[in-house]
Specification:
heterodimer; A: alpha+beta; SH3 type barrels; 4 domains; four-stranded antiparallel β-sheet; 10 helices; disordered N terminus; B: alpha+beta; 11 helices; elongated
C-alpha cells in the first residue's frame, strides 16, 4: 500500500527542505524562550528530531540577528545563548533574543491540511464530539495567516461497527463477527482488535485472527453481526509489529499479466509488486499484478471495464470472462 | 526575516540586500546584483508560502514605484494569536489529522503545521495508536489544482465525460476541492458560461495548466459543493436484486443510505451513474439491476465489454 513508486509522479512540489528548516527554527526559538533552560535531549524529544539537529539549529540561531541601525550587527542586535552551558552541559538557554518571541501562524495550506484531516476524522467515536472538532477547526482558521485553502472531506465510516471496535480496544476485549471473505466464504471470526485503518472511504480492522492464528485485515463492509465478547485479548498493538502496508504479499500469491490504460494504473498500484516489469504496448501499459486468488481478480477486473485486460495466464483470463458472462446471462 | 520583523517602517530591497547577512557579503554597491535579486525573490516566495505575512508598503506620493517599495513583517500578523492555544487532547487529535495525509505536498504541509504548533510546548497525551486513517491523493490533478486555488489562477484541462468519445478542454475558475464518498471533486465556475460545475478529478485527462489571475469568488465553496453532491446523491436512486449471502448483498447493504425494499432488493443512492455501473459490473452475477433503465444498460454494456476483452 505504501507504494513508493506511486508517489513518484513528480508534481510541482516546491523544494521542501529550506522551508521545513525555516519553519523549524521559527518554532524552536519561542519554545526555547518559554523554557529558561532545557537540555538538548529534551528539545530533541519534544520536536521529534535528532539531538544533532537541535545542536546545529541552536548554533545557527545563536549567530542570527538583525543588522540594527548601523547595519553592522552589534551585540544588542543578535541572539545570544549561554555558550558555556551549551558546550559543556549540552544545555540551551537563550540569554538574548531579537524580533521573534512567539509561535508563528500557520499558512493557509498548513491550516487547510489539518482542517481537512479533522473533517475526515469527524466520524471517529471516542476522540472528540463534533462540537469540539468544530471549535478546533475554527481555532486553526484564526491561527492561519490567510483564509485556509478550500479543501474539504466528507464522510466517515459505519459508526456502529466503529463504536464497538473502539469499545473493544479500550476494554481490551476480543470482538466476534461473521466475515465474508473475498472467496465468498462466510466464517465466524474471533479477533483481538489492534487498529482501525482507513483509505479514503474504505475502512478496515487490523487484528489478531484467532481462527488463522495470524494478523489479518478485515473490511468493515464485509463484517456483520459484530459483538464485543467477554474474552480478554491475547495480543495488543504494542507487542505486534503492524506493517504500514494493509495487504502483505504472500508466497502463495498468483501473478497475472495485464494491459491497462495509463489512466487507471494508479488504481491498481496496490496490486503491482515492487520492481514489476512494465512496458508500453500501443496505448496500453503491460505490467504484472499480484493477487491472492482469481476470485478477487475477476471482481477487480470486471469492475474496471474497458480499461484493464488480463493477458495471461489463460486460467485468469478465463475466470474474468466467465464471471462477466455469468453476470450478462442474468439479463438475457 | 528577523530584520523584516524588527523594522516598523520597513526596508527597501536595496537596504535588505546591502545590510542583511547572507545577502550583504555578496552585494556590490552600485553594481550588478541580478543574482542576488533573484535569490531575494525566491526567499520572498518561501517566506510567504510558510504563512509569514510579508507586507509591501508603497512610498507616500510615489504609487507604483517598485524601487522604493518597503518590505516588512508586521509582528501582530506574524504571531499566533494569544487565544489560539490547544490542550493536549487537541494536539493529539491534530496529530492524527496530520497523519491522514501521507502522500503529496499536503503531507509536508501538515507536518510543518505540527512543528509550528509544538512551539506552544504542549505534548500530546499519548499517541492514538488505535487509528491509522489515510487520505489518498492518487489524482495527478490534485496538486496543480490546490496550488491554482491558493494563487487565484484560472486553470485549463481536458475532461472526459462518461459516454463521450473524446475529452473536451475546459477553462474554469477553480474554487474548492472536496472529497465525497472517497473521490476528489473540483468545484469550479466555467469561464465561458459563468456556470457552477463539479468535476471528478479522475476524469481529468493529462495536464492541468494554470494561467491568468482568476476573478475573486468569495464564499464557502466547500460547503456548497458538498451540499450539491449530497443533493445529487439523494436524487440518484437505483434498485438492484442481490443474491442472498453474496459479497454484493453484504457490501451493498452496508453502503450509506441503502435499504432493503423487498426481500433481496436493495434501494441505493448514487452520485455518478457511470461509477456505480463499474462497481456493479464488478459483482458479476451477484447483482441484477432493476432500475433505472440507464443503469441497467450501462451495466450490461460493461459486462459485454469485459467478455469481449477476455474472449
Amino acid at each position: 500500500m505504501a507504494d513508493k513508486r506511486h508517489r513518484a509522479p513528480a508534481r510541482s512540489v516546491p523544494a521542501p527542505q529550506a522551508r521545513d528548516k525555516l519553519a523549524f527554527l521559527l518554532a524552536l526559538v519561542p519554545w526555547l524562550l518559554e523554557h529558561d533552560r532545557v537540555t538538548v535531549q529534551d528539545a530533541a524529544a519534544h520536536f521529534g528530531v535528532s539531538e544533532h539537529e537541535i545542536r546545529s539549529s541552536v548554533s545557527l540561531v545563536a549567530m542570527s540577528g538583525v543588522p540594527g541601525s548601523t547595519a553592522t550587527y552589534q551585540h544588542d542586535d543578535l541572539f545570544d545563548i549561554d555558550w558555556d552551558a551549551f558546550e559543556s552541559d549540552d544545555e540551551i538557554a537563550i540569554t538574548q533574543h531579537v524580533a521573534i518571541d512567539d509561535a508563528p501562524r500557520l499558512s493557509a495550506r498548513e491550516a487547510a491540511a489539518l482542517i481537512a484531516g479533522l473533517q475526515y476524522l469527524q466520524a471517529l467515536p471516542g476522540n472528540a464530539d463534533r462540537a469540539s472538532i468544530r471549535t478546533l477547526i475554527e481555532k486553526l482558521s484564526r491561527g492561519a495567516s490567510a483564509a485556509p485553502s478550500q479543501l474539504a472531506v466528507a464522510g466517515g465510516p459505519d459508526s456502529e461497527v466503529l463504536g464497538l471496535v473502539q469499545r473493544a480496544v479500550t476494554e481490551g476485549r476480543r470482538v466476534r463477527f461473521a466475515y465474508l471473505n473475498s472467496r465468498g466464504e462466510r466464517e465466524e471470526r474471533d479477533v483481538d482488535p489492534l487498529r482501525v485503518e482507513s483509505i479514503d472511504a474504505d475502512w478496515y480492522l487490523r487484528g489478531w485472527d484467532h481462527l488463522r492464528q495470524a494478523l489479518r485485515t478485515f473490511r468493515f463492509d464485509r463484517m456483520s453481526d459484530m459483538v464485543v465478547t467477554d474474552d480478554p485479548i491475547e495480543h495488543d498493538a504494542s507487542e505486534m509489529h503492524l506493517p504500514d502496508t494493509l495487504f502483505e504479499p504472500s508466497a502463495e500469491d498468483l501473478e497475472v499479466t495485464i494491459e491497462a490504460s495509463p489512466a487507471v494504473i494508479g488504481l491498481l498500484a496496490d496490486y503491482i509488486p515492487d520492481g514489476a516489469l512494465t512496458s508500453q504496448v500501443g496505448d496500453r501499459i503491460r505490467t504484472t499484478l499480484r493477487v491472492s486468488h482469481y476470485h478477487g481478480l475477476k471482481r477487480l477486473i470486471a469492475g474496471m471495464p474497458g480499461t484493464v485486460r488480463v493477458v495471461a495466464p489463460e486460467q485468469a483470463r478465463r475466470a474474468v470472462a466467465e464471471w462477466a458472462a455469468a453476470g450478462l446471462a442474468r439479463y438475457a | 526575516m528577523l530584520a523584516l520583523l524588527a523594522t516598523e517602517s520597513g526596508l527597501t530591497k536595496t537596504e535588505i540586500l546591502s545590510s542583511v547577512r547572507g545577502y550583504a557579503q555578496r552585494y556590490v554597491a552600485g553594481g550588478d546584483n541580478a543574482n542576488l535579486e533573484r535569490q531575494f525573490e525566491r526567499d520572498k516566495d518561501d517566506i510567504r508560502e510558510l504563512g509569514v505575512p510579508l507586507e509591501t508598503i508603497e512610498p507616500l506620493g510615489e504609487p507604483g514605484d517598485n524601487h522604493n517599495l518597503r518590505y516588512r513583517i508586521p509582528k501582530g500578523a506574524y504571531d499566533l494569536p494569544d487565544d489560539v492555544r490547544f490542550d493536549s487532547d487537541e494536539i493529539a487529535l491534530l496529530g492524527l489529522a496530520a497523519m491522514a495525509w501521507r502522500e503529496g505536498s499536503l503531507s509536508a504541509e501538515s507536518r510543518r503545521a505540527l512543528v509550528k504548533l509544538r512551539a506552544l510546548g504542549i505534548a500530546a497525551d499519548e499517541p492514538m495508536l488505535g487509528y491509522a486513517p489515510r487520505l489518498r491523493l492518487r489524482d495527478a490533478a490534485f496538486e496543480p489544482l490546490t496550488q491554482a486555488i491558493d494563487r487565484h489562477q484560472l486553470v485549463r484541462f481536458d475532461y472526459l465525460k462518461p459516454g463521450e468519445e473524446r475529452a473536451r478542454t475546459r477553462e474554469v475558475i477553480p474554487l474548492a476541492l472536496v472529497q465525497y464518498e472517497g473521490r476528489w471533486h473540483l468545484a469550479a465556475e466555467e469561464l465561458a458560461t459563468g456556470e457552477g460545475k463539479t468535476f471528478l478529478l479522475r476524469r481529468i485527462v493529462g495536464k492541468v495548466t494554470a494561467g491568468k489571475p482568476a476573478p475573486e469568488r468569495p464564499g464557502d465553496h466547500m460547503a456548497r459543493s458538498l451540499a450539491e453532491l449530497e443533493a445529487v446523491w439523494e436524487r440518484g436512486v437505483a434498485d438492484v436484486e442481490v443474491r442472498e449471502g453474496s459479497d454484493a448483498a453484504l457490501r451493498l447493504a452496508h453502503r450509506r443510505g441503502t435499504e432493503e425494499v423487498a426481500p433481496g432488493i436493495l434501494r441505493m443512492h448514487y452520485v455518478d451513474l457511470a461509477i456505480l455501473a463499474d462497481e456493479l459490473a464488478g459483482f458479476g452475477p451477484e447483482v441484477l439491476v432493476k432500475e433505472p433503465p440507464a443503469l441497467r444498460e450501462a451495466v450490461v454494456e460493461r459486462l459485454q465489454r469485459t467478455v469481449a476483452d477476455h474472449g
